[in-house]
Design brief:
Layout (H helix, E strand, L loop, with lengths): L11 H32 L7 H26 L3 E6 L13 E5 L6 H12 L6 E5 L8 H7 L3 E3 L3 H15 L7 E4 L8 H14 L13 H9 L6 E9 L8 H5 L5 E10 L8 H14 L1
Parallel strand pairs: 1-7, 2-5, 2-6, 3-4, 3-5
Antiparallel strand pairs: 6-7
């Protein structure tokens, strides 16, 4: 459950510097993003001759832009994220293989923590998401995602199935390691959504999760089946924050309030996921969320 936290007391310096930082950082992020988009557009000329070099260059350009958000997390706010592998030897594989990272979605900064982990593992520029189709029309970031072959979904299963199937064909032979970041719950955890999730799970005879929303299984089932032989592993990631620390919000980070986060990572070979039927694959996903 989401812990009730006291409002963080800000110093006068934090109150003064936050709006200045927002203006300077925002201007830099927008301007550099437009430059990156322009370079990405020019890079499209390479696509007919070498898709692999196109992808390498696009990943490098995405890194140049997205790494600014990692700077915001680690340098401006001073936040720290400690990655804990379930088995110490697993960490040697990070950033050296294609993977699907499945994260819990309880806090508004979960995606920033996911990108920070990708940066450490060398997969930030080549990271992918399953995002709402409307995001592709967002200037700068959405445009960059189009060039980066991010998977856009419409919550129309037939159309989404076609989009995911196309992604399987395109991303399996990516020239550098990619991580696909998935929030299978589909939306961020709130008390109201959790209550609705419990009622739905009870009515369908599905697991009633205490700390998560019931995951949506269709996209995962299709991905697990289609990416076998192309993507090596699933990373089961659980993000948590110090319960006695400040609230994990973007505004706290803007004010330079450091957050302390931990991410527990369980590495699961994709070949170990049962995909003979949709039912058994869905049940495997539900068990994984119970384990979380």
């Amino acid at each position: 459950m989401i812990e009730e936290r006291e409002t963080t007391k800000l110093t006068l310096c934090q109150k003064i510097t936050a709006p200045i930082f927002l203006i300077v950082f925002g201007y830099q992020f927008l301007l550099s993003g437009l430059i990156v988009n322009l370079l990405q557009l020019v890079t499209c000329l390479i696509w007919p001759f070498s898709k692999q070099w196109y992808r390498r260059i696009i990943a490098a350009l995405c890194y140049i832009h997205w790494s600014q958000l990692v700077f915001f997390v680690e340098w401006w706010s001073g936040s720290e994220i400690t990655a804990i592998a379930e088995y110490p030897d697993d960490s040697k594989h990070y950033g050296k293989e294609h993977g699907i990272a499945i994260l819990n979605h309880m806090y508004e900064v979960d995606w920033l923590m996911g990108w920070t982990l990708c940066e450490r593992c060398g997969t930030l520029g080549s990271s992918k998401i399953y995002g709402k189709k409307m995001l592709k029309y967002v200037p700068i970031v959405g445009w960059a995602w189009i060039f980066a072959e991010v998977i856009f979904l419409e919550r129309n299963w037939q159309k989404d199935k076609e989009a995911i199937t196309k992604a399987m064909q395109n991303l399996g032979n990516f020239p550098i390691p990619i991580w696909i970041l998935l929030f299978c719950e589909g939306t961020r955890f709130t008390k109201e959504k959790h209550k609705a999730s419990l009622e739905y799970a009870k009515s369908k005879g599905l697991p009633q999760l205490k700390y998560h929303l019931l995951p949506r299984s269709k996209g995962f089932v299709l991905s697990a089946e289609g990416f076998k032989g192309k993507i090596q592993v699933i990373y089961d990631c659980v993000i948590g924050f110090d319960k006695d620390g400040p609230a994990p919000t973007i505004m706290n980070m803007v004010h330079g309030v450091p957050l302390q986060a931990e991410m527990h990572i369980r590495r699961i070979p994709l070949e170990d996921v049962p995909t003979t039927t949709e039912e058994e694959c869905s049940q495997w996903l539900y068990r994984m969320y119970e384990h979380k």
